[in-house]
User: Fold these one by one.
Assistant:
Number 1:
Amino acid sequence: MHDLHDDPEQGLRAAEARRRQARTEGDWENYRIAHQDVLRLERQLAAGKGEEYAEPCDFPLKWDVGAPLPHLLTNDNRALLAFAVLDQDPDYQRGEQQLGLVEFEGCLSAKLGTPSDEVFQGHPLYRKGLEACSAQRVVNSRWLRELEAISSVHSRHRPERFRGLTHYVFWFKDSTFECVAGAFTVTTRRTSMTALLGVMVERLMS
């Protein structure tokens, strides 16, 4: 903990000031520390107000920040997300990449598109713990509540179904991926994106 203020809002302002100063001075280690404090305090403030906020989820891969090349395929209950992972092997054959594949089970809804990094500040979770180039889950998700409200008009609506779902948000460079789903599995493959898309289609059709 780097902020000793009893008031989280005061602590957040102090952390933001330290982050600005570190950036101005080019002190990137203290910038990183201050940035993590800002995110922590943003989440603390949102939680105290009962608002939605983003926090890290247990995700084993880092994607290529400059060219993640995300691709999304879905059907009625599954979503498959592919992307280029960080630290590519220079010995790969032409056309091959180290690609990540995430399969979301029990997917209720999924989307890939705006915002990009140029309009990142326009996302509803900005200043609520949303972190660039990372995999996160959304606590107190407004989108999840909206989906449940839609489902509630059905005569056989089961509220317990929604208790096991999570709102995920993955921020890429030129787009943002979000979905509401159950558990996910992650694998990596050394192949081309074209070949992996074919595998993804087969998995959805199986």
Number 2:
Amino acid sequence: MPTVQIKAQLTTRQLLKAVAQMPQEDLDRFAEQVAVLRANQRAPRLSPAESGLLERINQGLAAREQERFDELVAKREIEDLGEDENAEYLRLTTLIEALNVERIKALVELARARRSTRHERVEIIGRSRGARARAPLDPPRRDAGSGNHDSGQCLTPAPAPS
């Protein structure tokens, strides 16, 4: 990268004049570095406590467990679960339920830490409902005469009324 001579203290206009002297390739690289610097300055900073809470909020099943759970849900919907698979399904459902409980607790802690209003907390919790796997509570049922299946309710609690 070539060196550009500039005064020790620059106005914005002087800095732009110095940058204008740069060859195109160096200017492109410089512009990328400025964009990264700008993004870093604008990015919100999280405290270690908030980072820990976000890790808890985003905790989910391992990819392999999630895939297996999805397979079991599909089999359950067509009423094709064997005894061993049903036990595995129940084990994963219990694990998902526990993860959802921890997620909600962490969401509430984060909302309190950010001093959000009750309405904002309910909104945050409501948005998190679809973020992770949810296990149906009830067995699948057929709608009368339609042949449609209802996969049941999800384990994530409904938001409290405002």
Number 3:
Amino acid sequence: MEPSEGKALPNVGSSNSSQQTGTTRDLIWWILIACCGLAFIGAVGPWATLANFADIYGTSREGWLVIAAAGIALAILLVSETKPTKIRVNALFVVALAGLAIAGISAYDWAHISEIDSKIPGAGLVAGFLGKQELFKSSWGIWLVTASGVLLAVLAVARIVLLTRANQASSLT
């Protein structure tokens, strides 16, 4: 018989303070925290590269909005974790919306990076002279922001489902 057989798993929806210690806090919560951190890193990182010579950083454009949304999501996650399940579920809805906002902002900018070449007169000529197909291309910062925003939204919804199911199960017993 395996050691885990017949034993109850920790209840993620429990408001019992012994369940809220750092060692038993669920993995999704920690990944949500990490997603906020990754959004911060990506927001200050390069979102576009100009002919492999110069970087355009997120904070020169909408990266500040990403930092604000990630900061709000992080604060909500930290403050609401010790609250009752209903408050945590409502807070996670806001976190999911913040994740969608982060992903939307970065996806919008990412889509417009490729359009920059067509808006700058002579950009194709300069790119061809430098041996490049395009003058501007997306960079790792915008990729990281987009991925962390999507993951933040998806995992917030997953945690809402888990908390709601655990709360319903505990109210039936």
Number 4:
Amino acid sequence: MGKYIRDPIHGLIYIDNDELKIVDNPYFQRLRRIKQLAHTYLVFPSALHTRFEHSLGVCYLCGEFAKRLNLEEDEIKEIRIAGLLHDIGHGPFGHTLEEILIEYKGTNHEEKGSEIIKEYFSDILSEIGIDPIRIGKIIKGGVKDIVARILGGGEEKGIRISLDADHLDYLKRDNYFSGAEAGDFSIPYLLKNLVRFRNKIALHRKAIGEINKIILMRTELGRSVYFHKTRIIADEMLVKATYYAIEEGNLDLDKLWLMGDEEANKYIKESCKYSKDIIERIEKRDLYKWAVVGKFKGYGFKDPKVKLEYIDEEFYNKVAKMSLKEKFEIEKEISKEVGCDVIIARTPPLEFREDKIKSNIYIWDGENIISFDEITSYGNLVRMNREIAFISLICDKEHRNRVREISLKDYL
């Protein structure tokens, strides 16, 4: 018979009996304990939603996409289950610790998800007539058919604007729970205007306005939520605490990866004194502060406690793409020089040229399709990227004066 689940974004979500077997699995239930936006709740207290409800929402939207595109019943079942499991490879704190996974295991959360499905969900999926290997490939982006495209799979690298079930759910959900009020768009209207054109998903041209609303929401959420400096600082502190727990303690990364946020905090604290001190500071919101900050010209600020330096794209991209190992070595050097703990806090690699920003969105004019990229401008998104981008040195507020003597370009 299945169950109906109340959801503030989509209303009632129906989960059938086969899907419930997945939802009731303890490795899926673990997603209840992984916050969708990691430390964002330190700035937006209501941003406590988890990977669990996001996964339910993506499952629902995958089914709605599939029905609108007239897929077969077995395809609808398959993509709904892929939607349910698409984030199963996330470790505690979601994307925040992914750098650690890449550094030590040479893999990412999609690859990890495929491994977890194979180990913990194969029997369930086979029992309900679903191929676990194909689900893993869909999640990794290794399938290029219409079914996979509903979840955003099978696209070329570099896609930054996407029309798929995952993106639509997390934008709506993050906006709602953060309280950011970053705009809105209509999922029912988007679904009504979906068109299948050969092996691609397109939108009727009259829905272009709705796409612009999606881009506006993504831009505003990036500015106010996703790249808020306090969230970035807390995330960088966690990453360094985890690194020390591995290097100087006895932390087992595979064991950590199957934990929820609070379990992970406890485990990291048990690994070594430095990690314990850092995690306890995050828990008390006693965070490190900016001492030196690199920003693009035109996007600076005035704060007598912070040294502002102007940087260019070449410098930013070099530091933003720096490996964790290289970053931690430089942090050790700076910390030794100034006599206190210093962390390099940075926003992730961003795109500053319109011609490099790509979408997977196609517009149907009644006869043919055209890429949305050919008829729009991403100028606002580029300006937002330049506004939010920063490279900084952070430390305990008591040691800011020492660290302000440092110049970013002396070490980076």
